[in-house]
Structure formats: structure tokens, C-alpha cells
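Entry 0007
Protein: Porin
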Amino acid sequence: MQASARLLLCGALCAVSGAAAAQSSVTLYGIVDTGIEYVSHANAAGNSVVRMPGVTGEFPSRWGLRGNEDLGGGYSAIFTLESGFNLRGGDSGQGGRLFGRQALVGVKSPYGTLSFGRQYTMTYYALLGADIIGPDIYGLGSLDAYIPNARVDNSVAYTGTWSGVTFGANYSFGRDAAGTGNSPGQGTCTGSVAGRPTECREWSVMLKYDAPVFGVAASYEELRGGATAAANFFDGVAPIPLTSAADKDSRAHVSAYVNIDKLKLGAGWLNRRVDTAAAALPDVRSNLFFVGASYYVTPAFIVDGEVYHIDNEQHDTRATMGTLRSTYLLSKRTAVYAQASYLGNSAKARYSVSGGGGGTTPAAGANQTGVMLGLRHSF
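Output (C-alpha cells):
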């Protein structure tokens, strides 16, 4: 009887274990994307460069693990570990972090998803619908490098969707736990300092509505300063030190898109405000506008483009940039693409057309052309 009982117990445990395994999954995924790029007026002397960009093409290269376990009753445990890397040299992105793009664990339920760790802010998610070009080498990141890098450490996030309406919010106790920076020109801001609860704090909120034909979105995000934090406007003017927890770097955004058969149109506005407690440092504002379109010529051939304009009155810097891109899908996972962009700087501005890893800052007032041929594979 004792032996029989043990066999029955073992069988029951094995059955439960098998059922649990059947209800959980882990997915390996990634994007490998690179090509050859030409950039004119890539330095102050006006020289051009031909290179393999290190950061992005159509999309930044990455690999990751995504897991889901059914807990019953509509609840599930989730996790994401995502690593960015530069295909040119095989080195890790995001300051050399192993999982620099995302590292989170959470619970998904009928009432929304609650997650903890290093994750995207609501600014990133709110722009996904209307920003046609996205994290492309010639996209919004050329004029504001924070946009494709809008992620923070020590973060608690919540998102929930009901009848097409999505609300999201996140709060970071210290946005740069590793001390390697979260975005170019932002400095480092480790945070979670005893006695200084607002130092290096970040928070953001998002509200959007998505329907089959159209969508609208709005978001707001605020970053607080710390001893080695900074705010770079990427226009050639030196970054503004944000050394006090009272200093603020905030972004507000509204956008919309519409789908018309094979055509998608998107447009938006992003307002940035940097306010410092130090009387010697001026408060600075910028306004970034974008409008884009995407058209499926055939199911395998897509043509899209976007026009951007940024204005910084305090720095007296302005730029207008236009990007045109064509993508041909060789299969569901592999594509080739060709794209070109032209950026016109005002007399004092030094914006760069390429977000491909730096090193292409022109002389003040110089215009730039960027051209790239690339290959992308997803798995």
C-alpha cells in the first residue's frame, strides 16, 4: 500500500507539473538590422562619411526573452528581458547593459498590467501610433534622441485598455540605477538617495484611443535632476546641467493617425520644457512637429515618409527634416530597404540628420543629407 501510495502521489505531481508547463511559455525573439550609410557635412570641416551605423537602421538591433504563465482566473505572470546590441561591432547598447532595453516582471489581469523593473515610459508608447517612421536612423531621434530611448530603471508601470481606450502611468524612484545614462546627452541620474526622495525621479502618464480607422493619443512625462544629470537639446548648444532635484525636464505630446485603405497618415506635436532652479541658467522650450504617411504599394512593398520641424526660441535654433523610405519584404521575416533624408539647419543650429551612433555633427548652419541601404531580419 505504501509503495502504491507513492506511485499515485508521484503520478499526481507529474500530472500537475505537466499541466503547469503546458500553461506557460517563453519566446526568444529579436531584430538584426544594419546597412551602409552616407552622410554629407558630417563634421565642422564639411567632410562626408560612408559608414556602417552602430545604433539603428529601420529598427535598433535587439534580442530578448518574453515569458507568460497562466495563473488562472484571467491572471498571468509575465516577464521581458531585452538586450540591445550594435551590429557593427557586436557590442552591447544602452551603456553596455546586458538587458538595457527592457528588464521587467509583472502580472497581467482583466484589470490591466502591473510591471516592475527597467521599462519604457508612457512617452514611448503614446507615440507608437502616429509616428510613421518610428525609431529609424532618420526619425524623431535625430532631433530629440530621448524619444527612441524613453526608458527608465527602478520603475513601476501600469497599463489598462477598455473598449479601445488605454490608460498608462509609470513612476521611477531613480531613473538610472546603473549610472550609465538612459539617453544620449542626459547625463547620469542614479537616484533613490536617502533623504532626497525627488532626486532623479521620473513619472509619466498616457491616455489614448485606438479604433480600426483612427487613433488619438496624449502623454506627459517629467524627469527631475540630480548631481550629474543634464538636458541636451541636440542642437549644438551645450547641455544644461540639472544638478538640483528641483530642476525639471518635461515633455508633453499629442498626436493622431488615420487609416484609409492601404494608406496611413499620422501627425503630432511634442513640447519640451526645461526649468532650472538656478537663476543663472535660463529656462528653455522647444516645439517639435511631425507629419507622415505610409502606403502599401503591394503587400510586399511599402513606401513611407515623414517631415519634422523643431523650433527652440531660447537657443535661436531651428531645423526642418524630411525622410523618404521604401521597404521590400523578401519574406515574413526578412526585408531590404532604401531611405534618404535631408535636414536644413538654421544659422546657429547643429542638428544632425543621422541617429546612427553620433559622430556626424555638422558646422553651425550646415545642411545635411543622409542615405542608407539596409537589410533587416526578424526572429
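Curator remark: DSSP finds two helices and 20 strands in the chain. Residues 1-22 have pLDDT under 50 and may be disordered.
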